[in-house]
Specification:
Order of helices and strands: HHHHHHHHHH
Number of domains: 1
Number of strands: 0
Number of helices: 10
CATH class: Mainly Alpha
CATH superfamily: Tetracycline Repressor, domain 2
CATH topology: Tetracycline Repressor, domain 2
Helix content: over 70%
Radius of gyration: 20 Å
Structural class: mainly alpha
């Protein structure tokens, strides 16, 4: 019995690690598939195959394709840090910085990395939202959360402007349609935010 008691914490920890690893693989496979194929072209079967798990495992962990897409967007936005964006180190540093130039520099570097990961997934949500009411609700929620997160960076007077300038849609337009490099996007955003925030 003592041996069993000793093994349980290890077994429990090991199971958690395995569950986290499975979740990570599924979310990475889902993000890749949704970026490549969009909502309509992506199936749970495709995601399960890419993640090397069963379809039942995907459904058991996420419940539906819609929930899986939402989780993939959330992971893309948050990156490797599972905490909500305002609680993460860089956004907290941005909020605490009094110097406007340093604040813009930190913010632009941070937001551009998040957009690079998340914007194609938000585009998949947006494209499907026209025919899928649940995805229309998800898109509204994503934009609402994004606006709330930005409130820590700027005043309420400039919030809608910053929210629009840092939208996934505009990022996709400039990066994918116009072919801008990420460095060019960051330079443009920093210059534009400098003009906007100094007017307020």
């Amino acid at each position: 019995m003592n041996d069993d008691v000793k093994r349980r914490p290890y077994d429990s920890r090991r199971r958690r690690e395995q569950a986290e690893e499975t979740r990570r693989r599924v979310l990475e496979a889902a993000a890749e598939a949704f970026r490549e194929r969009g909502w309509e072209g992506t199936s749970i079967a495709t995601i399960a195959e890419r993640a090397a798990v069963s379809e039942e495992t995907v459904y058991a962990r996420f419940g539906s394709k819609r929930a899986l897409l939402g989780a993939a967007v959330e992971r893309a936005v948050r990156g490797d840090d599972a905490r909500p964006v305002p609680e993460q180190d860089t956004p907290r540093a941005v909020a605490a910085t009094g110097d406007i130039d340093e604040r813009i520099k930190l913010f632009v570097t941070d937001i551009s990395a998040r957009l690079e990961r998340a914007a194609p997934l938000v585009a998949a949500v947006s494209a499907a939202s026209r025919s899928e009411p649940e995805l229309a609700e998800l898109l509204d929620r994503l934009h609402s959360i994004r606006r709330s997160n930005l409130a820590a960076f700027t005043s309420s007077a400039a919030l809608d402007t910053v929210w629009a300038l840092t939208s996934p849609e505009l990022y996709e337009l400039l990066r994918r349609q116009r072919g801008w490099s990420q460095a060019r996007y960051r330079k443009w955003l920093a210059e534009t935010l400098g003009l906007v925030l100094r007017e307020r």
